[in-house]
Amino acid sequence: MKNLLDFLARYNHWLLFIILEVASFVLLFQFNNYQGSVWFSSANAVSGKVFEWSASVEQFFALTKVNEDLTQRNLLLEQQVRLLADSLQQRDGDATLLQKQQLQLLADYRLIPAKVVSNTVNRRDNFITIDKGAKDGVKKDMGVVCGNGVVGIVYLVSDHYSILLPVLNSQSNISCTIKGRGYFGYLHWTGGATNLAYVDDIPRHAHFKLYDQVVTSGYSSVFPPGILVGKILHVYNSSDGLSYRLNVKLSTDFANLRDVCVIDNTAMVERIQIMQAANDSIKEREE
Q: Could you tell me which residue ranges the Rod shape-determining protein MreC beta-barrel core domain spans (predicted)?
């Protein structure tokens, strides 16, 4: 104990210097958005590689369970396709109509497949890291989905990795609509259960029922319309009593997220450019 005290007394100025340096860096990166983003981007490549190795080991030991789930899903999908094809053939005499519609729907989209290498679900502001980046065509603000529905939005991009802002983040804000009803609101997650979120600003005159599906509205520049978000479990009044708040069970299982796709929608980009040009033209005329 005496030796330890002598050591601390001898090098106390160096210890104080190190503590102050650490504290200053923490304050710098935590309370300054620009410095925080630079640090986040710089550390992304190194941490992404470490996370990728760790995820590879976890995925190897989880392959048995994943294969079982995929087999069950494929069986279910095959049954659904068979039933739909039979129904279309009986109604229209064309069993390939469903396939043609699906191909037409996806014609304007390029999907960039990626694997999740890091994922958190136990924080208020969670992030997801994937193994695709700018070199693969990923850009900031692109939408990300999985086989079950919406995942989130690309937040930061490096050459080979990207960080996503998932639905399970307090800053996430996704435009949604009640399928087949035409009413839309905004999806938020307030913490707590990872399979529940809320859709706010649904008008009081809206007509819908429990277990109706909630899908992306297509009004934003991120997601195309019709991507599954979840289903309605409960309905509440908003705090001001002017609208409804929907409690939604999310279709995506974020705790077991492995494979995702980044949506590269060129049509959306063109639409944004046209809308921006129109707004600029209107402002110029007003001035």
A: 116-263
- What are the pLDDT digits (tens) for 66-107? 666 665 566 566 556 656 666 666 665 554 554 454 445 445
Separation in Å, CA 136 to CA 83, 245, 271, 287: 37, 39, 23, 42
Whichever domain contains 170, its CATH number is 2.40.10.350
Residues 128 and 116 sit within 8 Å (Cβ to Cβ)? yes
Instruction: Please give the residue that has the higher pLDDT: either 43 or 136.
Output: 136
Say which DSSP state 169 is in.
Answer: B
The residues, ordered by sequence, that sit 6+ positions from 118 with a Cβ below 8 Å of its Cβ are 47, 48, 51, 54, 55, 127, 128, 129
CB atoms within 10 A of CB 7: 11
**Helix pair 63-92, 33-61: axis angle to 10 deg:** 90
Summarize pLDDT for 159-215 with one digit per residue, the tens: 999 999 999 999 999 999 998 888 889 999 998 899 999 999 999 888 899 999 999
Residue 15 resides in a domain? no
- Domain of 231, in residue numbers: 115-278
**214 has which bridge partners?**
178, 230
Q: Of 202, 207, 214, nearest to 249 (Cα)?
A: 214
Tell me what percent of the residues of the chain surpass a pLDDT of 90. Answer: 33
DSSP-based three-state secondary structure for 193: coil
